Protein: Amino acid/amide ABC transporter membrane protein 1 (HAAT family)
Organism: Cereibacter azotoformans
Amino acid sequence: MTNLLILQGLNGLQFGILLFLVAAGLTLVFGVMDVINLAHGSQYMVGAYLAAAFAGLTGSFLLGLLCAVPLALAFGLILERLVIRRLYDRSHLDQVLVTFGLMLMLNEGVRLLWGSAPISVEMPEALSGSIPIWGNLRYPVYRLAILAAGLGVAAALWWAIHRTRMGMLLRAGASNRAMVSALGTDINRLFLLVFGAGAMLAGFAGAMMVPVVSAEPDMGDTVLILTFVVIVIGGIGSIRGAFVAALLVGLVDTLGRTFGPILLRSLMEPDAASQTGRTLAPMLIYILMAAILAVRPAGLFPVQR
């Protein structure tokens, strides 16, 4: 049971880091630009497909990753110039309708280009296999690499936001966008950079996950729902909140799916416990969100406005 707890705890942390990479961009876009982007999950999907495509062309996952990340950034910049920029002065309902339509178009676009069948990518040889972490318990090297990469990105993002001039502008824009524009900052350029960075982070998350889960259409939809839960729990516009909330959601979801049926076996028959546990497990993160919002309606670390 201890080994299972450690294993699933690491899986939960890795899932949380993945959610943070996607949520960090979305919370900045929503917090700074005040744009609800339902196509953000599709940018995660596009990153996965780009990594899979270039890994297949070059025969190397690392080269595929190096190609996918800047292309995900370029895709985000183009998307902002062609579509998102026209939504800044529109209502949230208009933003939801347009970005939902964009999400459907991107999902169908990958079907046209790559088909509906999942695309798998071979695990990098240098990161294949597993290493001992506790007694006889072993853990996949690649999942540890995802953890390390996510923590590195989180540290770099914290430094960029709290120690650079651009980060100062982002924090100011999240608090008072009109004042930042009045002080002479090119707000459209700032928005372009924010949206591009968010798309790049989502694309990087998708590219890192494609050796673990195959690239397939609609793969970003589930991630998008969980990402919105993360930014609501953490506080809209807060990177620190997104990080803490992503780890919480990742751990609660992973541990709940594993240990829920086990705990219920002490109360009911094994078959009924397994069925009930599978039914209740997906609800745990929403119960967590409701409980946190009941105590802190603005989230754990709300941005002061």
The chain has a mean pLDDT of 87.
